[in-house]
Amino acid sequence: MSQTVLVTGASSGIGQATAQLLAERGHRVFGTTRKPGAAQASGFTMVGLDVRSDDSVRGCVDQVLSQAGRLDVLVNNAGYTLMGAAEETSVAEAKAQFETNFFGVVRMVNAVLPVMRKAGAGKIVNIGSLAGITAIPFGGFYTASKFAIEGYSEALWHELRPLGISVSVIEPGFVHTAIGDATQVAESTLQAYDPVRTRATSALGRQVKGGIPPEAVAKTVLRAIESRTPSLRYRVGTDAAWFPRLKQVMPWPLFAVGVRRTFDV
């Protein structure tokens, strides 16, 4: 049955692939972007949204409801990557990372829940990351935001299940998208970190280039929203499947060697 879906961050990458696939499957899809005039949408409606703004979030949800009359699924995908050593990253930069990656999700969920509670049904899908399970060196605050999504989603699952609303978090490994091109770097760098930061950033870029296509993540989102009983967690990609298992069973010093080799640190 066709559902009305709102996908944040749908101008490129995972969000765009997800919005397009859901539209192809017959769902009525609204995608969001901070610059709607410059974004292209294929088969779905693009609306403006800044997840950092309460007013923008309310306006976006109201626009969807006015046009569609309902909202069945929210896919929280909007976010960006911040790189830099924890010491190099200012509190303001760290807060900005959380304002988009975590509190943006919170704002969106709070905006759609009254509608879903009234309907006694709904699905919330949060795009997490392998970085929410094992840390990325020199991506401490991006990692922290994704760890926060994990805990928040799990708590929501318990709270909303009695109300007929499901919560899922998608945990992709490295995905070949242009997110690396939009990566922000901490402004105040320290010389002591230069060599290892440069290696880690280059290694991350290589991993992203060799990652799974965003369409693989989109297919998993589709599976979650078309399921009668969605799972709490969906892992996408070989690295996302194996890294968490290895982290559980391997001694930390041995697992850490693998992480350090992956990121050349």
Structure description:
With 265 residues, the chain is of the alpha/beta class. It has one domain (4-263): 3-Layer(aba) Sandwich (Rossmann fold). Helices cover 48% and strands 15% of the residues. α1 crosses α7 (214-225) and α3 runs parallel beside α5. The longest helix has 21 residues, at 140-160. The termini are far apart.
Strand order of the largest sheet: 3-2-1-4-6-7-9
Cα-atom Rg, whole angstroms?
A: 18 Å
Q: What is the number of domains?
A: 1
Give the CATH superfamily. NAD(P)-binding Rossmann-like Domain
Name of the CATH first level:
Alpha Beta
Low-confidence stretches: none
- Strand residue percentage: 15-25%
Examine the secondary-structure arrangement and name the CATH architecture: 3-Layer(aba) Sandwich
Please give a handful of descriptors for the protein shown:
265 residues, alpha/beta, Rossmann fold, seven-stranded parallel β-sheet
Question: Summed up, what is this model?
Answer:
The protein has helices at 13-24, 54-68, 91-101, 103-119, 140-160, 194-209, 214-225, 238-249, 252-263; strands spanning 4-7, 28-33, 45-48, 73-76, 82-83, 122-127, 165-172, 184-185, 233-236.
List the helices and strands and how they pair.
Blueprint: E1 4-7, H1 13-24, E2 28-33, E3 45-48, H2 54-68, E4 73-76, E5 82-83, H3 91-101, H4 103-119, E6 122-127, H5 140-160, E7 165-172, E8 184-185, H6 194-209, H7 214-225, E9 233-236, H8 238-249, H9 252-263
Parallel strand pairs: 1-2, 1-4, 2-3, 4-6, 5-8, 6-7, 7-9
Helix pairs in contact: 1-7, 2-4, 3-5
